[in-house]
Design goal:
alpha/beta; 6-stranded parallel sheet; 9 helices; binds ribose-5-phosphate
């Protein structure tokens, strides 16, 4: 990789930043971060950015607000240092879930944060599995939107899939679940899900046949696990034989990983390392998205096609 590329990582997920850098053969350039007595942050980039292609790696994971402000400051510093182009690599864009006005007088954080990033100096965004594809349109700069279906499918190809079916918990993700099922040559089913609040969802029915099947649940993220626990109830009522749970963003808030793994009929849980994972569990497999992000960075830097690599 040529010397015109400079990569910095925020503090949200240094392990992923290191893995991407190692795949690219580019060192991770240091950042000096100061927190002042008034709790404000300041970052200082410790490498020359002038006319360089600068990549800032920072998923918006908890503490989301802290990590977001750090990313904004990194972008501001890179722009102020005369970077040729400032690329935000955001493997998990948490505010994507705030994408519509579904109650009176609510904020739409997905669009606001996109505007903030551009105001801070971001020229381009590389991200992974946005909660809904239309969030892409919130950004007024180019976005390369990858998914992890290739990595997840490669994992499940090692399993006996002769009796398997892919199940999306909701109709919104059914298109991605269908694309995933197609990769594996499997049928697909979907839940009719309604979310009442952050802690309450209802899945009234499953559209498709799951009785006696080995189910692979596929979702974009598992946060509290409210969705997947509700889906498990329906799958049990309909006599599914076993359940593997797969998602891109394994956030596992509120002890969700332990709770999910404690279910006897859950055979395995698979996610990617888009978010850092403190917990390890014998039922959990974490697939790396670093090679995909590194390949995308290399292609963006060299002006090559990214979509041809990651199309459904
Ligand atoms: C919602 O529409 C998403 O696709 C996920 O199902 C949701 O974000 C998961 O959150 P939780 O695990 O808290 O139900």
């Amino acid at each position: 990789m040529d010397a015109d590329i400079v990569i910095f990582g925020g503090r949200a997920h240094p392990e992923l930043a290191d893995e991407i850098c190692s795949d690219l053969g580019v060192p991770r350039s240091p950042v000096h971060t100061t927190r002042f007595a008034n709790d404000c942050l300041q970052v200082q980039l410790q490498a020359n950015c002038r006319e360089r292609d600068v990549y800032l790696i920072q998923p918006l994971v908890p503490p989301v607000q802290e990590n977001l402000v750090e990313l904004l400051l990194l972008a501001d510093a890179a722009r102020g240092a005369s970077a040729g182009r400032v690329n935000a690599v955001i493997p998990h864009y948490a505010y994507a879930r705030s994408d519509k006005k579904d109650a009176p007088r609510i904020s739409i954080g997905g669009r606001l944060v996109a505007d903030l990033l551009v105001t801070a100096g971001v020229d381009r965004v590389l991200t992974l599995n946005l909660h809904s594809p239309q969030v892409h349109g919130f950004f007024s700069v180019p976005v390369d939107h990858l998914h992890a279906l290739r990595e997840l499918a490669a994992h499940f190809r090692q399993r006996d899939l002769s009796n398997a079916v892919v199940v999306s918990p909701d109709l919104g993700y059914a298109k991605s679940a269908a694309a995933f099922a197609r990769r594996l040559g499997l049928p697909v089913a979907a839940g009719a899900k309604e979310r009442m609040s952050d802690t309450e969802v209802r899945i009234a029915a499953i559209i498709g046949d799951v009785t006696g099947r080995d189910v692979i649940v596929l979702d974009d993220e598992i946060s509290r696990g409210t969705t997947v626990f509700e889906l498990l109830d329906r799958l049990r009522e309909q006599g599914a034989r076993s359940v593997a749970v797969a998602c891109t963003h394994g956030l596992f808030a509120d002890n969700a990983l332990d709770k999910l793994a404690a279910a006897d009929d859950v055979t395995e849980i698979v996610c990617t390392n888009s978010a850092p994972l403190e917990a390890e569990h014998p039922k959990l497999t974490v697939l790396s998205v670093a090679p995909a992000l590194a390949e995308a960075i290399s292609r963006i830097h060299n002006g090559e096609s990214v979509s041809s690599l990651f199309d459904h």
